[in-house]
């Protein structure tokens, strides 16, 4: 990368952020969940948490005015930044001009064909990571979208609302443990790297954030039908106050399901019909899905 003006303050500095906003007449779009980080040290900690170096090609989602993008570019081989707000495209072309390893695309990540983007913009010789400050209102859809692409991400390191971070890292038997937890932990190891106070953002959000590190894990037990597994998990958590028997009946069809077979499935797995989904481990849901198929309760 090339830095043309080493004396210029980092984009994330409060003075520079205000200057950029005033120069371009920018306001924050609540509809896009825009909160800009103005603490350079926090941004550097994010990049360090992702262990970004010259071996990495990095996808960033929602670069804003380029504060995090700049810090990533200083360490990475290349950066592909996807920005939905078309007002920010000309801003980014100016703020990130000193760096020759950044490409900015006007793109909605939820509609993007990421495999195609990687093929066209990365050389395929470096490992791929995602590093981003995600909008609170679409954090979960973005993470699920990334996991569903089938792309091998060496790491996904993202900032999100602290409450969502706690849900991703939750353990069975806790209130935070739910279908999102199971879906993500089925595929990824989850670590909350550190908490980011709301005071370092402009405008200041109402809650603190957290940096979450996701890295791929080897699945030891596989479901016979992965998509059915995801559906079973969602079904079991559909009504958290209901036990697993009632949720399964609702999911499978109370009027049509063979209840005797379903009772045998739970008995063989030593799962009480009165148990709640929040107390089952990921492998329990996998075995449950496989037994539902084995007993022909639902077609494979």
From TrEMBL:
It is an enzyme of class 2 (transferase). CDD domains: AdoMet_MTases. It holds the Pfam family RrnaAD. Its main location: cytoplasm. Gene3D superfamilies: Ribosomal RNA adenine dimethylase-like, domain 2, Vaccinia Virus protein VP39. S-adenosyl-L-methionine binds at residues 35, 37, 62, 83, 108, 133. Keywords: Cytoplasm, Methyltransferase, RNA-binding, rRNA processing, S-adenosyl-L-methionine, Transferase. PANTHER family: DIMETHYLADENOSINE TRANSFERASE, DIMETHYLADENOSINE TRANSFERASE-RELATED. This is Ribosomal RNA small subunit methyltransferase A.
